[in-house]
Write a structure and sequence with these properties.
Arc Repressor Mutant, subunit A; about 40% helix; 10 helices; six-stranded antiparallel beta sheet; Beta-Lactamase; globular; three-stranded antiparallel beta sheet
Length: about 260
């Protein structure tokens, strides 16, 4: 799911495609984990169409059961709309029956929240998220749970997944990205990101030093077993107040690699 839904709207209508459907999908893409509820004015601004047109599309999506309104007339996705994402999560879980036990062990070893995710277009989809409860961990977890989509370019798990791709697939993935700044150290140059991915592929570990958000450090490793439906990776999130990225790599790196190998 793109960070900016307007990026999926072609500036010139294609005769082969339905413009209305294109805008309807763009509206659904506005809803992500860190903005689950939106007003009509916010939707109109994000999709860059008039409020009256946005209202017509949103009303249609409500009628179709994809959106619902709360008592303040704000919109949110229904469980029906989340169905495809839920199906994707369940498919990955069926392919990785040892994942939960491995992640439980990893949480015990690291003392921090651990996750597993898959590459889903230009974002990462969390398929597992096992929370820890130490000082500062709640803030570092950013309120994200299973089913959340997060950016690939500024997260450890996203960079691990990108680094695991073949050279042609990685070039295609980079071309589709918009490198928006999320944290103080977000990489916003595609050349710099490509160089970072080469280092990650060589080292086997993907670090994130306050790139996703201030105060959040994370480390990830790709799951290399072939034959899975999507590229997969595991990650751990650590409050920056507890450590440095260099210390995390030294202390937790071996555990991350071992967990990725076991899944």
């Amino acid at each position: 799911m793109p960070d900016d839904p307007t990026l999926s709207i072609r500036p010139t209508p294609e005769p082969r495609y339905s413009r209305s459907l294109e805008y309807g999908v763009a509206i659904l893409r506005c809803f992500i984990a860190d903005r689950p509820v939106l007003r009509l004015s916010e939707l109109a601004e994000m999709v860059d169409i008039s409020r009256s047109t946005t209202h017509r599309y949103a009303s249609t999506l409500v009628e179709l059961g994809c959106l619902e309104q709360d008592d303040k007339r704000r919109y949110r996705l229904t469980h029906h709309a989340a169905g495809p994402g839920t199906a994707a999560v369940e498919t990955v879980r069926l392919e990785t029956p040892t994942a939960v036990k491995t992640l439980e062990d990893l949480r015990e070893q690291t003392g921090h929240t651990v996750s597993m995710g898959v590459l889903d277009g230009t974002r990462v989809l969390y398929t597992h998220r096992l929370f820890a409860h130490g000082l500062g961990q709640y803030e570092a977890d950013l309120g994200l749970g299973v089913g959340a989509h997060i950016p690939v370019h500024c997260t450890a798990i996203g960079k691990a997944l990108l680094a695991s791709l073949s050279a042609p697939d990685q070039r295609e993935a980079l071309a589709a990205l918009t490198l928006k700044r999320r944290g103080p150290n977000t990489i916003t140059s595609k050349r710099a990101l490509a160089e970072e991915l080469a280092r990650i592929r060589s080292d086997g570990l993907a670090p994130c030093d306050e790139e996703q958000a201030p105060g959040v450090l994370s480390l990830a490793a790709a799951i290399s077993h072939p034959g899975r439906s999507k590229p997969m990776a595991v990650s751990v999130d650590v409050p920056a107040q507890h450590s440095t990225i260099k210390a995390i790599i030294a202390k937790l790196g071996p555990h991350m690699k071992a967990a990725a190998e076991r899944i």
